[in-house]
């Protein structure tokens, strides 16, 4: 961040005045600076919603999973045994949130995909830019921003080998794939020392990093699954956000191809329910009535079993002056300990408090590497600095 004197416009009055401002780097210091303007097609008010369109586009939301009764029972049992370990590993809220039933609202997902800009990884509205950030992934999804990388060696090799062997046994049993159902039947309530790691492998495969093959235990999550039971924290939030950005880019591309009358099929593997909840949290004129939650419950519980609204033309609402005036730039400020009553200066250096280091990572421009390291996505929070003011 840098501090300098600039003419700043008041959101309340619309008037400008010369005063001290704080800018996330990289920032532009003059109208002729190297600012990137999103493509015009990302914010074309003449483009309406999907209502009435018959596009040759088939979308499978493979990463949007609903919990089963068996899964909820397994979570309850493992919670009683490993709650403190989950907190230490930074996965407590993420696991509990996987028991939420979230009703998908396709008009919101498709409508906002039309406002997505793949170059900046932001939603571009006539009145400004906004996006899903690491802050949202942590607070809504419950995933840790800090922790070990999945690129390095992880976990207990003996436990990992045991899980790999069990996975192969299921594949060879005649199912032809590592079925999640068979995995749960093998490990749930068996009291084996590997049950906790097997439980986490199921959670990671079903709710976090879904495989291109439906409902299987994903081999690549096993090292992570055996690392977490020790209370070791892994930086999952950047991996989840990378997958969301990639899927929004794919959906935007698919909408464009469908409009050109090209038959297009997409399988979206990311947990895109977090995008819909992001919309509900920030657009009061689009959200249904949230549930009241108890202290300590994950924020996602606000939307458990909440029925979706009948909206109509999503984009006409999103692009309106009403949305411009009502958009909630900081929906979590009243309920999260990261935000202080008074502003303070903090020197970013080694040995930062974990909460402060997390906040710094929310703000820092970076490159998000995917779980399998097969793609990267740009993370540009300086473009949406008002979400952190």
UniProtKB/TrEMBL annotation:
<feature type="domain" description="Aminotransferase-like plant mobile">
    <location>
        <begin position="90"/>
        <end position="388"/>
    </location>
</feature>
<protein>
    <submittedName>
        <fullName>Aminotransferase-like</fullName>
    </submittedName>
</protein>
<dbReference type="Pfam" id="PF10536">
    <property type="entry name" value="PMD"/>
</dbReference>
<dbReference type="InterPro" id="IPR019557">
    <property type="entry name" value="AminoTfrase-like_pln_mobile"/>
</dbReference>
<dbReference type="InterPro" id="IPR044824">
    <property type="entry name" value="MAIN-like"/>
</dbReference>
